[in-house]
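MODEL INPUT / OUTPUT PAIR
PAIR INDEX: 1
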Amino acid sequence: MTPPRLIVGLGNPGPEYEATRHNAGFWFVDRLAEQLKLSLAPQAKFFGKAARAGELWLLQPTTFMNRSGQAVAALANFYKISPAEILVVHDELDLPPGGIRLKQGGGNGGHNGLKDIQAKLGTPDFWRLRLGIGHPRTLGLAQQVVDFVLHQPRKEEAPDIEHALHRSLLAWPRIAAGDYTGAQQQLHGKAV
């Protein structure tokens, strides 16, 4: 069991994006920082806002989504953090609002943040915490995907996404211990 040393929340910087679906990773890292009593602060050399607790780093890239790999690689390379010690938290179109999946490796599903991280790390073998936001087609919406992810969740979706964030934080002790199997069982089971 390898505990994570870098938790990366994906999103876009700036107040105009703060409440958009694409910032679900930022929302998780904000709540985790609060739970751990850490303050994220700008770190220019890591192209993001970061906080540290012992060996653990929290990071929110301040590059735009499609340049997220620049921040992840800068911090990971500087502190010699391997891909297996990185957990990237991001919005997931292929899961319904409130859905959660924790996995290592795999494709990027067209997610520009994941695509850039894979390119900069040279591997897809980092962990991902996928927070479901739904897909405009499965939700019966005519919106283009780009427009959909850059808008706030609808009022009927927001409680499900909030609940997923809450459940993910409840699984944090297992994730922090490197017990990904236990965390998967907790997160992939029935919602509580």
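PAIR INDEX: 2
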Amino acid sequence: MTRTLLCFGDSNTHGSPPIVTRGEPYWRFDAHTRWTRVAAGLLPDWDIVEEGLPGRTAQFPDPVMGAHMDGRDGLKIALQSHGPIDALTIMLGTNDTKTRFGATPERITAGIAGLLDIATSLEVQQRHGGFRVLVICPPPVLEQGPIMSEFTGAREKSLQLPALYRALAEARSAGFLDAGSVIEVSPTDGIHFEPEAHRQLGEAVAEAVQRL
């Protein structure tokens, strides 16, 4: 029996490469590189649904990129667009550390809590016949590269997130994976993942999903 895994996140779930210069043409790592597809290759009995939106936050409408960056609305749409699903991964929080949001680590974690509230609501769980959630804490930000001005103060915040996410996941009976214990962000832009990091994360997520 084939099961379905919904991967919900931002540009690092979408497969965006590190930014070398601002304004460069859009492109995306191919299916052999993205961590979602790496995980799919290790989960032969699972269908993988990729729901990664560059710029997505856990809770904030973005004044620059648009109100649709608010992950709460995005998750509701995804959970009604796909299914039934058997597991959900949520990897968000990097964009919430942007300077313009002024969010504390606790506020960022509260955004993840809101997404868990949506995913574990009675209506949603009944719709899909029940599913487990894996909370993935993104690796810490490096304040360097062509978009560093958007992330002033972000590293300090992001370093506090793993412990907060872990405690939240335990309180909500969700699975937890600290991506920062497996990979690091690219030094090119301090935010996105290099191909090798995608491979390593895909392997770790596949293992974590099997544990669910």
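PAIR 2 NOTE: The chain has one domain: 3-211.
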